[in-house]
Amino acid sequence: MSGSAARSVRQGFEFTDQDFSRLRELVYRHTGIRMADNRRDLIYGRLSRRLRALGLRSFGAYCRLIEDGHNDELEAFTNAVTTNLTAFFREAHHFDYLAETLIPELLKRNRDSRRIRLWSAGCSTGEEPYTLAMILRESIPDIHNWDVRILATDLDSEVLLKASAGVYEQQNIEGVLGSRLKRWFRKGTGTNKGKARVVPQLQELITFGKLNLMEGWPMKGPFDVIFCRNVLIYFDKPTQKKLFDRFADILVQKGHLFIGHSESPMDLTDRFALIGQSIYKKNR
């Protein structure tokens, strides 16, 4: 069979092209994310677990549940289809630029207000905002005399719970080396043996919250810095343009935007200028 009649039956579930198309449309409607054709196996694998948990026998029944607006399952659906891949000091050149160039610039520019605001948009399990907090603590000697805050948001409520807890498996902190590891983490004991927790001095700089980038943003800003890395690649071009313009709206003049190496605003808006490897400055 081919076209919409094509189907696959795996582990007892029928999964037709029509099911896949319907689910992709639901993903887009609720998250703004465009699922490519090669995401079929990912969709099946993640959502088949939801069918088993709910005692459903078909993807059609699951689609109807989401379409009917079942709020609890809508959150579980969103969590299931959201891809979360992150690491401490991922794309290290961004954090080098932040520490060596941008923070000294902000300390001069904001010396009167003594206020610095950063946003980690798509923070996943927290590695990015905690890395930002380390850099801020290390780069601002008198940080206690400054009003410094990091907003960390994500669409997935489950990863936000892990992020706010700040507890990580040993293998997840391998990117944090030497004295930095000793300074910013505490080894777990008892039931937490083999894990490590970030110190409270990092957690107190961060506010975690659930946010769908496609919906209203309750925060007013303005932000000096936005990190939104490897998030925009999941959106189509019109949605990317909308988000780049919204980022520009909420950034201060000459504010900085850090994005993934596969992302670029250059053909979508003229409100940013490239100043480094996937680092942009707002120009209007």
What brief labels describe this structure?
10 helices, 12 strands, seven-stranded mixed beta sheet, alpha/beta, 2 domains, globular, Chemotaxis Receptor Methyltransferase Cher, domain 1, 284 residues, disordered N terminus, Chemotaxis protein methyltransferase, Rossmann fold, three-stranded antiparallel beta sheet, SAM-dependent_MTases_sf, EC 2.1.1.80
Written account of the structure:
The chain is an alpha/beta fold and 284 residues long. The chain folds into two domains: 3-81, Chemotaxis receptor methyltransferase CheR, N-terminal domain (Chemotaxis Receptor Methyltransferase Cher, domain 1, Orthogonal Bundle); 92-282, Rossmann fold (3-Layer(aba) Sandwich). The chain has helices spanning 17-31, 40-54, 59-67, 71-81, 92-109, 127-139, 157-165, 178-184, 200-203, 237-250, and strands spanning 7-10, 13-16, 115-121, 147-154, 167-169, 185-187, 195-198, 206-210, 223-228, 251-259, 272-276, 279-282. The strands form three sheets. It has a seven-stranded mixed β-sheet with strand order 8-4-3-9-10-12-11. α1 packs parallel to α3 (59-67) and α2 packs antiparallel against α4. The termini are far apart. The model is unreliable at 1-10 (pLDDT under 50). GO terms for molecular function: protein-glutamate O-methyltransferase activity. It comes from Thiolapillus brandeum.
Give the arrangement of secondary structure elements.
Elements: E1 7-10, E2 13-16, H1 17-31, H2 40-54, H3 59-67, H4 71-81, H5 92-109, E3 115-121, H6 127-139, E4 147-154, H7 157-165, E5 167-169, H8 178-184, E6 185-187, E7 195-198, H9 200-203, E8 206-210, E9 223-228, H10 237-250, E10 251-259, E11 272-276, E12 279-282
Parallel strand pairs: 3-4, 3-9, 4-8, 9-10
Antiparallel strand pairs: 1-2, 5-7, 6-7, 10-12, 11-12
Helix pairs in contact: 1-3, 2-4, 5-6
Domain CheR-type methyltransferase: 8-284
Pfam families: CheR, CheR_N
Protein name: Chemotaxis protein methyltransferase
